[in-house]
Here is the input.
Amino acid sequence: MHPRDFSPHLRQLLARYESQFRTGRDLYFELESYLEIIHFYEADSQLTKALEACERAVSHHPSSTGAYLKQAQLLMDIGRSADALPIIRHAKVLAPGQIDTELLYAEAVVNLGKYEEGLKVLEYLKEEADAAQLSDVFLIESLIYEQEGQYERMFYTLKSAVNADLTNEEALHRLGGCVNRCKRYQESIDLHEALLDRDAYLPVAWYNLAQARLATGAYEEAIEAYEFAFAIEEGFVQALQECADLCTELNQHHRALKYYLDLLETEGAEAESELYSQIGNCYMAMNRPQAAVTYFLQAARHDPMSDETFFNIGSCYALEGFWSNAVQYFEKAIGIDEERDEYFAALGEACFHLQDHEQAIDCMRQAIELNDMESSYWKLLAAFLINDGQEESALQVLEEGSDVVPGTEILYSRIACLFAIGRRQEACQWLAQALAEDFEQYPAMFDLIPELEEDPDVLALISIYTA
Here is the structure.
């Protein structure tokens, strides 16, 4: 945030206020001007400057309870309730009986663990407060139950808070978090639907409704609620993000992409590597590797130590058949994390396409060393060896793999290898046994030796077990 984003009046006010630190002059400002300055620093997360402005406001307006209360609230926001308490007590002396002051006092003592004293003040305020103040009373009371771990009681207290004032956004935010703790998802759905019947333009209520629907498995209804949340509040980043993530989980990649791109537009230069990767993943799922690689490259610029991003870039180039580029990025991924078996497998396959059979074989052996339970690695290594004229070595690899990996997939590949090296009688014996054990896996033979699809002995045996 920068002063140029605000009105000329505020820019001039801030410039005049900050000039006194260069000149050493102590300038006087009206209380309203101080509050504008404090609000700017607070919104810009410059809390130290906001507190300093509060101290100056108090020194120039020592009879203003508003300045004291703002100072106390800022201290409480940064966890300094003990420092805030004497300031609030002073404000109570200046203006006794003000409900807003009593509310802040109750919040401070609750933050300090003085629950009994806080409850006494809150019970008294319930009789005096208007609807908005009553909502805040319940909100502060809910802090006690949260700190005591009484999440159901917290839920019902927050329910009272939002029913008293359905525009109390802090109460709505805290209610959403509380629901996840006490698991009252259906009650949350009923409550938020009732609130939205009263006022349909409550983005946080729509967000909470989406969260509760998501937890009950009502995914399409959750997406609809998320959509209302960020339609009402433009730039509702959390709702956009979670809606896009849900669409991704449901394999609705076109829909997810739209929301990730909206999120990118919202965040602009503040967008992080993960968002670019999420957009890239959507394009990959939509079989658009050229578009995907553009966003993965952006992700890599934001996080040059992300091995997964480099792997994704390599995968895009592999899908396009740009094997040299794929090798370059797979090697970058391995350079960052050499414990990922899938990286070595992908590099091996790319090297094989570049006719670097020796490197391809070495990579597949490394992949197996990292994860010997992945059947595809054994099959790929055998395929590379066969293509390199090393059929006997391929058979040895498959024999070793069949002892490690459960199931018959590698056994069928081993049978194909026996056919390839001319040991047909042995291959037929094993094929009969494999078909009897697990008929559905027999196409694994054809992955390794496609010609077997037309082999008469193979077809004859398959026909016996088909019948």
Remarks:
- The CA atoms of residues 223 and 243 lie 6 Å apart.
- The mean pLDDT is 93.
- The two ends are 75 Å apart (CA to CA).
- Residues 372-467 form a domain with the Serine Threonine Protein Phosphatase 5, Tetratricopeptide repeat fold (CATH 1.25.40).
